[in-house]
Amino acid sequence: MNASVHQEQPILQVNALRKSYGPTHALGGVSFQIFAGEVHALLGENGAGKSTLVKILTGVVAPNDGTMQFAGSAYAPRTILQARAAGITTAFQELSLLTNLTVAENLALPRQTKGWGRLNSKAKNCVAATATLLRYGLSELNPNTRVSELSLADRQRLEIVRALSHSPSLLILDEPTAVLPSTDWLFDLIRKETAKGTAVLYISHRLNEIRQLCSRATVLRSGCSIETTDLQNTDDARIFEMMVGQRMASTLKSSHVPAVSSQPPRFQVTGLDAGMIKDLSFKLYPCQIVGVAGLDGQGQCDLFHALYGLIPKRAGTLEVDGKTVTINSPSGALAAGIQVALLPEERKTQGVFGDLPVRANMAISALNRIGLLGFTTRKSERQLAKGVASEVDLQERYLDFQISELSGGNQQKALLGRVLLTHANTLLLFDPTRGVDVGTKQALYLAIEAYARNGGAVLLYSSELAELVRLSDRCLVIYEGRIAAELEGEAIEETRLVAAATGNRRHAEGEAA
Amino acid sequence: MTKPSSYLTALSRSGAGTAALLYLVLFVAYASVERSALSVSAFSDLINNASPLAIAAAGGTLIVLLRSFDLSVAGVISLVNVILASYPLEDATGAGISLCLALAIGALVGLVNGVLVAYGGFQSIAVTLATMIMTGGLALVILDAPGGSVAEWLSETLTDTLGPVPISGLVLLAVVIVWAVIRKTDFGVSLYAVGQDEHAAALSGIKVQRTRCLAFVIAGALYGLSGYMLSAQTATGNPTAGNSLLLLTFAAIALGGTSFRGGTGGLTGSIIGAASLMLLQKLLFSIGVQSFYIGLLQGVVMILAVSLMNVGEWFNVRKA
Q1: Tell me: domain B36-319, CATH 1.10.3470, correct?
Q2: Rounded mean pLDDT of chain A?
Q3: Is residue A170 classed as helix, strand or coil in its secondary structure?
Q4: A38 CB near a chain B CB, below 8 Å?
Q5: Nearest residue on chain B to A97, judged by CA atoms?
Q6: Is residue A433 located within the same domain as residue A508?
Q7: Which of A51, B201, B231, B244 is most deeply packed, by most CB within 10 A?
Q8: How many distinct structural domains can be found in chain A?
Q9: Which of residues 145-204 of A touch B (CB under 8 A)?
């Protein structure tokens, strides 16, 4: 970004924005400016107020106090359509697509293209959608496909394309890369848009991406804008400090306890065939974290679901401590002495009982241990949850909250606590840190590592390669439903993982040997 | 598109397809027991018999698609029925005025439901329970015991046939056509969107409250039409006429493949589902099953039909 841009009027100016929900202050004074053609990063921990700010900018909620100027005039949208008409569109983190409608219908919402007799025309709608998809490099999607049939990454892309298709002057991207296997497509798109003068507000936890794209960043902490900083002159430690409030102890890859190879494997999978997975075999040893890497949709999801008994297996045997077991349901996995637990990858839909308090959510998988004749008491539930809360760095005061009131990171901590409470000796973790902030990530890493040190075996999938490098003792790379490579110890590096994950077999085999 | 397997998939996916299949099976069974079933008059009897329930179920479908419940159907049908029986208006013009009155009563009750549910934020089951009790009570005020008589022109014309086609069948056809048009409007798309995910629909720019309110109004008007058709069939007034239809309405919707989770299904399926339920009743009567058992067997068939749909769904998932 050159200096001349900054002398122009900002396209968006936000002054002292405040928003409270009852007694809790979601925003307590946020001010910043965005210029045309700029990619502006918004940084902050979960619960720092980023979502609320996005909601205000898009007209979903109204602020209690403060003003906004957009494109030279006062801006106070009351609906999402007003924001869109003014020129601000958003690709939401939680995705606002309707899964029971087609790609074309979703793109056209809320007004479908009209044909004969002012009724909706499927054909015209489809033509319009094809043109839009082509324009933004997403022509491999069929406009007539239902969104429910798309992978999570394609849904994310579609969400972004839909926001762009309204030709905004300011595009808000909320965690756009959380589920994207590669950022190339998105970054190309962003560069093309900004060249045309579109401003982008980019919200992400991934600093390396932000450094690639953005020149300036605004940091939010506890609902206040701390500072707008020039990224080139600010190092990561300083940014973390602004986000968290104090200098964080830098945690390096801890030296792993080498797995004792003389020990028998805790969990052994032979010739597993399920979903996309074809003839897959591996072993998990106690005290070991085995990472699973792979691009989106290579079968890693099916692998975890099959091991947890959520999808049927066509073939293969599972052995726990040398004994063959059958797992046909999650409770079967837990009950039959098999002790496998999964951290659900979509906590909103798969893991959380939103209306129950946090303690109940944590104790739910261990009810048989605290119950007396099948009844549980609030006290025993609380005691159990309290015990494990410290292990996962969850503050005790949260235990009586409804879990849906917590931020995403704290929900994830509570869920990890639930999984630990099962006393399972094998953990299956599927993307446990997706969309959580740096502080929470560290807490989760420490909890996982402590668990492994105490004799647990962990199978961990992560969409973030850095996380696998940080945590795993051994790493399996999945490509098209098979293990394309197996890396161990120091050999686990991002470049090698990427090479194997993109099906670069020869390269990967050379490394594995 | 031309592969037979893809047709099969499409058929098993749409509730209307499964319900139509069930209807066909029941009809073959009925025709083999009752020889006269194949005559025009017998068939027109079947359609006449089914039309009040079918139209009520059609209205209820709109609400179930939104993942809500509407119990006011029973009260609206009763209210329309007693009004038509207490104030009969003769001739075609009278029937026209009565029709407008029936639709207006239904739409008005629907508007009350819609405003309270959509803009007031009340739970649909509580609000519609209240309006059901209110309209049911109002029906008893107008006519405190079964009696009165519906205009002769109305009861005769609507149970008649036009050539080989029963008039009530034409009314059903009109409802299906109106539905086909609605599906081609933004409201139609919004209906499915809101039923699937209210939050995402709002973020996509859909006016969730208006969609909800309008759905209740249209549903109410259809209940009014259902009461109108019922009055033509029975030719007399009964202040509790709608009560027996209440639960059957939901049975027909489930049988027609509309999910109570919202967002999938359709109105045509519910109409065929209603027709199947009524045909089953006839079939059981003609085999000589005692009437006490009919409810029991209807329930069994419903469970069978719903599990058939689940099997179809499961099959699709496995293939994918």
Answers
A1: yes
A2: 79
A3: strand
A4: no
A5: B200
A6: yes
A7: B231
A8: 4
A9: 149
Taking an 8 Å cut-off on Cβ atoms, the answer to whether A109 and B185 are in contact is no
Assess if residue A378 is contained within a domain. yes
Chain A environment of B197 (Cβ under 8 Å): 98-99
How far apart are the C-alpha atoms of A500 and A465, rounded to whole Å? 12
- Separation of alpha carbons B220 and B215, rounded Å: 8
Contacts of B38-44 spanning 24+ positions with Cβ under 8 A: B40/B161, B40/B164, B41/B161, B43/B166, B44/B161, B44/B165, B44/B166, B44/B168, B44/B169
Amino acid at residue number A231: L
User: Domain range for residue A361?
Assistant: 352-422
Does residue A390 lie in a domain region?
yes
First to last CA, chain B: 16
Q: Is the dihedral of CA B135, B137, B138, B144 positive or negative?
A: positive
Q: Are residues A172 and A83 in the same domain?
A: yes
The CA distance from A288 to A303, in Å, is 19
Kindly indicate whether the ipTM for this predicted assembly is greater than 0.85, answering yes or no: no
Task: Report the predicted TM-score, pTM, of the whole model to 2 decimal places.
Answer: 0.73
How near does any CA of chain A get to the CA of B192, in Å?
A: 7
Q: What is the mean pLDDT of residues B108-124?
A: 94
- The 10s digit of each residue's pLDDT in A206-233 is 777 888 888 898 988 878 888 888 888 8
Task: Residue A82: give its domain's CATH number.
Answer: 3.40.50.300
- Shared domain for A407 and A304, answered yes or no, is no
**Minimum CA–CA partner of A159 in chain B:** B204
Residues of chain A neighbouring B199 (CB-CB closer than 8 A): 94, 96
Asked whether residue A487 is assigned to any structural domain, the reply reads yes
In a domain? residue A93: no
Out of B186, B193, B205, closest to residue A101 by CB: B193
Residue A296 pLDDT: 67
pLDDT (tens digit per residue) in A40-60: 999 877 667 888 899 999 988
Choose the mutation target among B6, B182, B186 for the interface with A, i.e. most A CBs under 10 Å.
Answer: B186
Given CB atoms, is B193 within the 8 Å cutoff of chain A?
Answer: yes
Which candidate from A80, A81, A98 shows the least CB-CB separation from B197?
A: A98
Sort out which chain B residues have CB atoms less than 8 A from A126's CB and list them.
Answer: none
| Cα–Cα distance measured from residue A291 to residue A445, given in angstroms and rounded to the nearest whole number | 13
Rounded distance between C-alpha atoms, residue B166 and residue B177, angstroms: 17
* Nearest alpha-carbon partner for B272 in B18, B43, B77: B18
Domain boundaries, given as residue ranges, for chain B:
36-319
pLDDT tens digits along A400-424: 777 777 776 777 777 778 777 777 7
Domain end call among A229, A250, A271: A250
Q: How many CB pairs under 8 A join A and B?
A: 66
pLDDT tens-place string over residues A98-150:
988 999 999 988 888 887 778 888 888 889 899 999 989 888 889 998 988 88
User: Hey, what long-range contacts does A174-177 have (CB within 8 A, 24 or more apart)?
Assistant: A174/A50, A174/A51, A174/A54, A174/A90, A174/A91, A174/A92, A174/A93, A174/A203, A175/A93, A175/A203, A175/A204, A175/A205, A175/A435, A176/A91, A176/A202, A176/A204, A177/A204, A177/A206, A177/A209
Model confidence at B270, pLDDT cuts 50, 70, 90, reads very high
Do residues A175 and A77 share a domain? yes
CA A187 and chain centroid, separation: 18
Which residue type occupies A233? Answer: N
Q: Which of residues 92-131 of A touch B (CB under 8 A)?
A: 92, 94-101, 105-106, 109-112, 119-120
Q: Which chain A residues have a beta carbon less than 8 Å from that of B206? A: 109-110
- Single out the residue of A132, A18, A110 nearest to residue A65, CA to CA: A18
pLDDT per residue as tens digits for the range A271-326 = 888 888 888 888 888 888 899 888 766 788 888 888 877 788 888 888 888 788 87
